[in-house]
Amino acid sequence: MFKTLSLLLVFYLFLYLSSAYALIPGDVNNDSKVNLGDIVYLVNYIFKGGPSPAIRFSGDVNANCQTNLTDLIYLVNYVFKGGPVPDGCPLWGEPQNLGPPVNTAGAEVTPCISPDGNTLYFASLGTLGSDDIYYSVWDGLSWSVPVRIPGKVNSAYYEAKPFVTADGKRLFFESERLTGLGGDDIWMSVWDSSLGEWGEPINLGANINTAYDEGSPSLTADNNKLYFNSVFGIRVSTWNGSGWGTSVPLGPGVNANFTEDDPNISADGKMLHFIRWNFYGPQIYASYFESGDWSVADTVPSPVNDSFRCLSPSMTYDGLSLYFASGGRPGSIGGTDIWVSRR
To answer: All domains of the chain, ordered by start, with CATH?
Structure first.
C-alpha cells in the first residue's frame, strides 16, 4: 500500500512539474497565459536587462530561436490585434552538403555566412600552399564558383576563420603571418570601396592577441562585443569607443574542459554556438545568455551532431540556418565539406 501511494505521489509530482515548466510560446513569465503581463516582462528583458524568459525560448514567438524586438512586436500584434499565434522554436533539419562548386575533393573549412545569407566566406587551400579566404555568392538558385577575396588579406601565410561585420565593411580573421604578436593572431581588414578590395590587415593588439594562438573571431550585430578563442578558452572583449578592452574568459558553462573553439555569437548576442571535443571528436554546442550569465552548454542534437566531426558553426542573422564544416558523414565530397542545416 505504502509503495503504491509513493508511486502515485511521484507520478503526480511529475505531472505537476511537467505542467509548471511546459513551454508555451509567448508565455514569457510562465503563468500559463499570454497577455499584457508577458509584453511587460519582455520589454523589461529586452530594454532594461530584466530577468530572462522563465523558460528558454518562451519569448521566441516568431519561431527563429532568438528573443528580441521582433518577438516583442509579434507579441504585441498577437495580444492587441489578433495577429498570428506565437509559435515555438523548430528543430534543426537534416544537414545538406553545399556541393560543387563550393566543396571540392580537398578541404573547405571555417564557413562564415554574411548577414543577408547571400555570401559565404570560407577557407580553402590557396595557390601558395596554405589556407586562403574565398567567397561564393548565392544567386537564388546556386552558389557561384568561389574566388579568393580581393585585396591584401591573403598572403603566403595561413588565413582562415573569416567574420564579416553586419555592415559588410570589416573583415576579421585569424592568420599566422610573422608580423603578429605570436602564433595565430586576430586581424581586421577594412573594405576599400574606391578600389573594390580589402585593405591592409590591422593586428587587433595586445588586449586580444598574445604570444599564444588566438582566432575564430565573432562579433555581435552592434559590433560592440568580440568573442574569440585563445589557449585560455573562449573569451570576450568589449569595444570601449576607441579600442578593444581587456578580454575576459566566459564562465564554466562554456569553458568546461578548454577544448572549446570556433565561437559564433547570434545577432542578438544571446546565443553562442561553438565546438567542444568529446567522445566523437569536435562537436557543436550551444549556450544561452540567461539572467546575466552563460548557461551550461548542450550539444546541438542530431541530425547536426551525429558521431561525425563538426567544426566552425555560423548561424544566419535570422537564426534559421546553421552553416558548419564537417567530415566523414555520408554525402561528403572531400575530406572536410561545408554543410547547412535549416530550421
So the answer is: 2-81 (1.10.1330.10), 96-342 (2.120.10.30)
